[in-house]
Specification:
Blueprint (H helix, E strand, L loop, with lengths): L5 E6 L18 E5 L11 E3 L18 E3 L1 H10 L3 H4 L3 H12 L2 E7 L31 H14 L3 E4 L28 H11 L17 H28 L8 H6 L1
Parallel strand pairs: 1-2, 1-5, 2-3, 3-4, 5-6
Helix pairs in contact: 1-3, 3-4, 4-6, 5-6
């Protein structure tokens, strides 16, 4: 594989996501907008959305350098990495795996995707929306584990997976500043081999992507154990960077709650 050079922003719809309006374009080679996030800034490159994304929420038009990615593309991409049951069936993770497959990134930077929803007030930058990652779903029992898995798959192909937000997040990625993209170490990926062997033995890949139609095949306890193994594989990196972040003015830090989650 060619050495990765692309720097990809994965932009979600949290209320804080509007801050991305003020950012320059130079830090990123690609901007991937999830669902309604295309409204935040006009220079997005890719809009990725699920099959049930309302037609009235689609852009009226797209530019010559813009494209829309749907299930026809992201389901095969997700399957390259083991499928939705293991990866997590919500669009932030789906966008991440699609980008790893299609864009060969050196950096995958998430913003507006922290999966933290206030009890009062706006849940999304456009108002009140559904908390999709928090729904009862066999693939979303540990959002932290799913983020650890994505980060390790990124590292396996030379990609640093980070977040540009501060404060609470269900994503275990290190929090970095815009001028710190690409400055992080890569996590060790040796432990992936054992976890992937377990996933392969369970055989929970659903090629169609419609895993909910085969849910009676899945053992919750075994999936929970897989999640624990992904957290254990990523834990040394989290602890290393939490300590380092404290020493370098929080340029790469994890919250206490994130550390406790693993």
């Amino acid at each position: 594989m060619t050495k990765p050079t692309n720097r990809v922003l994965i932009l979600g719809s949290a209320p804080s996501a509007v801050a991305a309006k003020q950012w320059g374009r130079d830090p990123f080679t690609h901007i991937v907008a999830i669902n309604n996030a295309w409204r935040i800034r006009p220079d997005w490159d890719v809009l990725i959305h699920p099959e049930d994304f309302p037609v009235e929420n689609h852009p009226d038009s797209i530019g010559p350098q813009q494209r829309v990615v749907t299930a026809q593309e992201y389901v095969p991409a997700q399957n390259e990495f083991g499928g939705f049951v293991y990866a997590g069936g919500t669009m932030a993770f789906t966008a991440g795996y699609w980008a790893l497959s299609a864009l060969n990134p050196a950096v995958l930077a998430f913003f507006g995707c922290d999966m933290i929803y206030p009890r009062n007030g706006k849940t999304h930058f456009y108002g009140i929306g559904s908390a999709d990652p928090l729904r009862a779903d066999i693939s979303l029992r540990s959002l932290e584990a799913k983020s650890a898995r994505l980060a390790l798959f990124g590292a396996a192909q030379g990609c640093r997976v980070v977040r540009l937000s501060r404060g609470k997040s269900r994503l275990l990625f290190p929090s970095v500043a815009l001028d710190g993209l690409g400055a992080q170490d890569l996590p060790d990926t040796d432990a992936m081999t054992g976890v992937l062997r377990v996933e392969d033995e369970l055989g929970y890949l659903v090629p169609s992507g419609r895993y909910w139609e085969a849910e009676d095949r899945f053992d919750v306890a075994k999936l929970d154990e897989v999640d624990r193994q992904w957290l254990a594989a990523y834990r040394p990196f989290v602890l290393q960077h939490k300590a380092r972040g404290m020493a370098v003015n929080q340029t790469a830090n994890f919250t206490q709650a994130q550390t406790m989650a693993i």
